[in-house]
Design brief:
Layout lengths: L1 H29 L16 H4 L4 H36 L4 H16 L2 H15 L5 H26 L2 H9 L4 H12 L1 H17 L2 H5 L8 H9 L5 H33 L1
Helix pairs in contact: 1-12, 3-6, 3-9, 3-11, 4-6, 6-9, 7-8, 9-12
Length: about 270
Amino acid sequence: MRFLKKLFPNIYIGLILVFLYLPITILIVYSFNSVPKSFLWGGFTFRNYITLFSGSDGKEILEALLTTLKIAAIASVVSTIFGVITCLGLAYLRKRTQTLIMSLTYIPNIMPELVTGISFMLLFGFLGVQKGQFTLICAHIAFCVPFAILSISPKIKQLDKNLSEAAMDLGATQWQTLRLVIIPEIMPGILSALMLTFTMSVDDYLISNFNIDSSTQTLPMKIYSMAKFGVNPKMNALTTILFAAVFALLILSNLTEVKDKNKKNT
């Protein structure tokens, strides 16, 4: 009976992992398929990766990728800065006020992206702002700020207030206390906020579709337009590269946390 009690949870976890990663595994495998636009295996090849950024399609994919990375980088950095400022400000408010404001910041997290995308489209139309990369960056920042707050606020709550008071008693200014004491203590939350908001911005399709002009495409919009014409091996190769990049960032983040814990223990 004890063996069965241990076996069933392992089987359950295994099935969940298979359900989550089997589609990604199939995508990676077929990115090396030599038969284009087919689910039939025709042999192993790197041709899909070699021809990914060649030709007119490759140029459009590269432009969409660079546009997406630029927008995601700006949105993640700005939203994380706003998240840090918001969390630091909330730390000095009363608990009731904190609870009220945090409840308001949680609403965009659970609100459908469709509502956010249409809302900003109507806002920019009301203000007479022409849609383009600027409007998309503003929409992405507003979309990512609540997620940044969600990542940083636990670290702020864990922060010992005596540290800042001790630093100021020893002669540190408020700016020095913030830069040398508070920011290093909440740095894991800041890094997780940067990674989360960057991923959310890169992955977004709905908000981008409503708040950008027809002359510019983000990578999700380009992939969606390619998917309309069937299974494209270039699309498989591109998404495989993105998955590998995210996986590498996740490993680096975990290694950094492990090193920090080892330094603190020693």
